[in-house]
Amino acid sequence: MKTPERAAFDALPHPTVVVVGGGFAGLEFIKRLAGKPYKVILLDKNNYHCFQPLLYQVATGSLGADNIAHPFRRTVGPMPNVIYRMGEVLRVLPEENCVETDHGKVAYDHLVIATGTVTNFFGNQRIAHEAMQLKSINQALDIRSDFLQEFEAAVYLDDEHAQRQRLNFVIVGGGPSGVELAGALAEIRKTILKHEFREVENQRMQIHLIDSGDAVLGNFSPKAQQLSRAFLEELGVNVKLNTLVTDYDGKTVTFKDGSTLQSTTVIWTAGVKGAPVQGLEAALEERPARLRTDAFNRLEGCTNIYALGDVALDRSDPKWPKGHPQVAPVAIQQATHLAKNLLRKPGEAWVPFAYRDKGSMATIGRYKAVVDFGKLKFGGPIAWFLWLFVHLMSIVGFRSRVMVLTHWAWKYLSWKNTIRLIIRPYVRKEYKVAEPVGEKVG
Ligand SMILES: Cc1cc2nc3c(=O)[nH]c(=O)nc-3n(C[C@H](O)[C@H](O)[C@H](O)COP(=O)(O)OP(=O)(O)OC[C@H]3O[C@@H](n4cnc5c(N)ncnc54)[C@H](O)[C@@H]3O)c2cc1C
Q1: What does the pLDDT read at residue 127?
Q2: CB proximity list for 383: less than 8 A, separation 6 or greater
Q3: Which atom of ligand 1 is nearest to the CA of 308?
Q4: CA torsion, points 366, 367, 373, 375, in degrees to nearest 10?
């Protein structure tokens, strides 16, 4: 028997919108349709929204996983016209107007694809297997366990070479994720390793940040690039630019020039590619694996299927001929925009999407951050406080905001990170040739 709430939802005389993915785009979209004349079904394989910009803080023990995740059921609870179903969408069947999930079929009148991205290893299967990723909470917790396990293992080693191999942390990709992770690991060397692992010479821990381009933070202004590199080097991070990683076997990183580096931990933040679901190949742009849309977020060749956020590729804006950047503000603005268009009266013309770029920021460690806001480009403590404020205010859920603020206050006032627990040890799996590329978000 149906609960009265479920019966009331089923009885709504509105068209059904199925939303696949509750990331920045999907979550904003359902909020905009709450209380409006649509029946909304949110499908996500996880039961929570993940605030990806702070994943690196979970990976380095500054925040707990639950501080950056918010359960969908808490969000949709007060929304009578929105329901959530946990499940992975396996394919879309456009001719039947339904999606196939691991729990069965779900029918739609309108379909919104907001599935985000997965790590891009550019086809290198061995690196995909051996390197760690930072796209999901599971992966962040793996990194946290791994670096603590490496520290614990290093304590047992007398041989300097073996110890250095354990304590060499290699981050591939000098974008915001790589830079922020490198800065946080450098602070861990200065605090945790130095004070709590006294049997290990802390300078044996080395952090290498590798990028194939000629600057870190490739999409930022030259000023932000120079400042962030200076901040990283001040913290003792080895920044290697114009350097291409060609292989990694779990112990040795190989570069294009033939040189090598010994390391048991490589974290790959060098790129992402779209995570489209099967059945939409007609609109799929293979190389970035993104779904082509028009200026109304509508999938090429479809009348009732839309794509939002990182997975969408809209080249209609002359300011963004290669498509919009894969960042949270684009996802949020597209979601707001599509909801407004769907709520227009019949016959009213739809408005094309135009992205308002409000700037970028990245933090490199305590009191160190860079900000690009239009013509305003600066770095240092003010940028850092601004970074803290913007990220705190963007986190979903009042409880999470309070928790994050408390963690940060404790961390930054006491110089002590709080979470150094290996709850779920990270276990490396043996690499078998021709196994599927491990690019799925866990
Ligand atoms: C480490 C890191 C740091 C970042 N830092 C910043 C930053 O500082 N500033 C910034 O603006 N951007 C940042 N980004 C980028 C930003 O997080 C993305 O642009 C944003 O998350 C895109 O939102 P989205 O809704 O398109 O996808 P996502 O937020 O990735 O959400 C996709 C959702 O779809 C679900 N999903 C995927 N496939 C399926 C399926 N088949 N079935 C069911 N559910 C599915 C996933 O579980 C997920 O909930 C960062 C990203 C990472 C990884």
Answers
A1: 97
A2: 361, 369, 370, 371
A3: 26
A4: -140
Cα–Cα nearest to 323, from 336, 333, 309: 309
Mean pLDDT of the chain: 94
- How many angstroms is it from 24 CA to the middle of ligand 1? 7
List the Cα angle 368/373/376 in 5-degree steps. 85
The DSSP letter of residue 435 is: P
Tokens of 245: 């990683």
* Residue 158 neighbours by CB under 8 Å, 6+ apart: none
C-alpha span between 29 and 336 (Å, rounded): 6
Q: What is the pLDDT of residue 1?
A: 84
Mean pLDDT confidence for 235-250: 97
Report the residue among 47, 115, 313, 360 best suited for mutation to probe ligand 1: largest number of ligand atoms under 8 A from its CB.
115
- Asked if residue 120 lies in contact with residue 270, where contact means CB atoms within 8 angstroms, the answer is yes
Judge whether residue 84 has pLDDT over 80. Answer: yes
Q: Do 4-119+273-342 and 125-270 fold alike per CATH?
A: yes
The model's pTM is: 0.95
Report the CATH superfamily, name and number, of domain 4-119+273-342.
FAD/NAD(P)-binding domain (3.50.50.60)
**Rounded mean pLDDT, 65-73:** 95
Q: 442: pLDDT confidence band, cut at 50, 70 and 90?
A: very low
CATH number, span 125-270: 3.50.50.100
Q: Catalytic residue positions?
A: 180
Rounded to whole angstroms, how far apart are CA atoms 30 and 18?
Answer: 10
Domains of the chain by residue range:
4-119+273-342, 125-270
The tens digit of pLDDT for each residue in 98-133 reads 999 999 999 999 999 999 999 999 999 999 999 999
